[in-house]
Amino acid sequence: MDAVDGAQLPRLPIPEVAETCERYLTAVTPLLSEEDLERTRAAVAQFLARDADGLQAALREYARDKPSYVEDFWFDAYLKPDEPVVLNVNPFFVLADDPMPSAGDAQISRAASLVISSLHFCAKLRRGELLPDAWRGKPLCMAQYGYLFACARVPSSAGDRIESHAGSQHIVVMAHGLLYYFDVLWPACEELCISEAQLAENLRRIRADARDVVGSTASAADALAARVGVLTTDSRAEWAAARHELARAADNAELLRVVDSALFVLCLDDESPSEPDEIARTMLHGSYRVRDGVQCGSMLNRWCDKLMVIVCANGAAGVNFEHTRVDGHTVLRYVSDVFADTIMRFAAKISAGIDPAVHSAAPLRLARADSERPRARGRIAPAAANGPDGEREPDPWPRRLEWQAPRGSRLRQRVRFAEVRLSDLVWQNETCVLEFEKFGKLAITKLDASPDAFVQLALSAAYFSLYGQLVCVYEPVQTKAFAHGRTEAARTMTPAAARFARTWASDSGDDAKEGALRAALLSINELHRLAAAGKGVDRHLFALLKLWEERAPAGAQLPALFADKAWRALNHTVLSTSNCGNPALRLFGFGPVVADGYGLGYIIKDYRLSFCASSKHRQTARLLETLDATLRGMRDVLSRVQARRRSLADAEGADYGFFADQPLGVGMPDGTLRALSERRESEGPARPGKRIKAWPSA
User: Fold this and answer.
1) Which homologous superfamily is 89-428 in?
2) Structure pTM?
3) Most buried pick, 229, 271, 377, 552, via CB within 10 A?
4) Beta strands in 211-339 (DSSP E)
């Protein structure tokens, strides 16, 4: 994994500021009236004349010793806001159905399999054996993988920070809102210290113990008080205050360290969502279920500051992840490898003559484990007897984390209020799914269209068809070809895309719609190319603004470009979209980024498309219904025009001698006879064998 830290990759280029401003004007043109656009042109001209050169020079100087000129500013954009990470930051994936379905306990079987495959991925990563990512033969930066496991977002009164724990050996498991942990790796050589069978048994014990504890609690309110994970869903300031109060007890501080340093959190939910909408909501924020006035849903069974693997009682599974240091394509590689590893282990069992329902054999080195029930206290055990090579022998036996309420604390109230605020947040959000099975990538490609650009235009046209408005559309384009590359924004409501949206909603015929669509496809393809090359608009201007904010004296006037209406319009993303998926995934989604917006995650597969839309109750299902019709309509228009042109092209190349023994038009496609007849009348008699000249395409 030579390019793991990006040291061998070029740095993200800082574009010329004049070029960025020119692209900025193009990006905001569809969002503004002519009058506003004139004011924006004046603001940009003023910015270029007064501020741009100085800020650009300062940015180049700032970036001299940094792997990426925008990276630190980007981290601050995630870590400084006070909003909860639920719905505002964390995306989710719904995994494809279990390739190793169990006839028995679907949850335990799926969870054990996912954990084992995740540990295989983690061990490969730590040993440096993970094959580097590449795109069209070019290596991509792997720096993000160092923050996938054993990493946590930690709140504090001074703002959030990201903590990484390189030597972590354990995972945390949540069931009924309670937390448990046990070791899963040897520290030195990064081998697994637990078999799949032993892991499955641990999970059964944890699930049973959690059920017993919650069931024996005097009241639902008492049970809620122990579910401190819900604090991670609160505003960052509230969570920071609660965490500070929680850590006043020495045992709690130790338990927080256990959770923060875990490789990841496995959430065993006690519900069985079956409908796509229901599954998506479970993975995005958890379920809402109130009993006796107290929340009991799976929204309590989360620790939102870490990578979470979520497995429902029926085996439905997904991933929810903290987004500050990792992007969707990094987590996609992880879940893809996990999916592939699961299939390979399944195949290996079959080839070895083992019943696939039987858990895999133990690894080469198993740590010792006693046979007691999960221990009541959550202290870290003293170091066990050393294993080979002088390592501390891992302890693969599960322990429950028991939180203590410090004297005089408001911890019980904090948990209660955090749950109520989360419930409000969930009730304010609506999530719907469209699993579109009419066609997919292959059919779109046959129409000479980029699948992603096709979908982007369908989203914009569907919104315009429903609301009659041209709005800002955001699509991230990865820039991992550069050191520490993340994403660049593609603002896909281009002028050509705006013309297409208007044309699509009009009574125009196929030819006009097809022409507008083709022009818009080209504009988005070019936008993607520029963004991937680091020549976008958003990241460059964002860095210039943040640098100005850091260095400007008190009371300084904001540069004209950033004070202008167009800058606010560009950053008010009504359609926040992202394409992220492959055969390992069923759904992908995230929350809206503005109050009147939509979060739209989609997956493009060979024969189908899937969309997950969320909004604050803005007719989400209706938008997806409009999108369904728009996708079919766009395909039909392109197909009809393409078929007609092929028919005409076939006729153009036909020899008149071919029709000598049969009436003109026999065996020809509909419409071609009329075109031929009209052409012959205009040209007069044709000589035998003469080919018809090409006529203008429609």
Assistant:
1) Choline/Carnitine o-acyltransferase, domain 2 (3.30.559.70)
2) 0.89
3) 229
4) 265-268, 290-291, 294-295, 308-311, 317-320
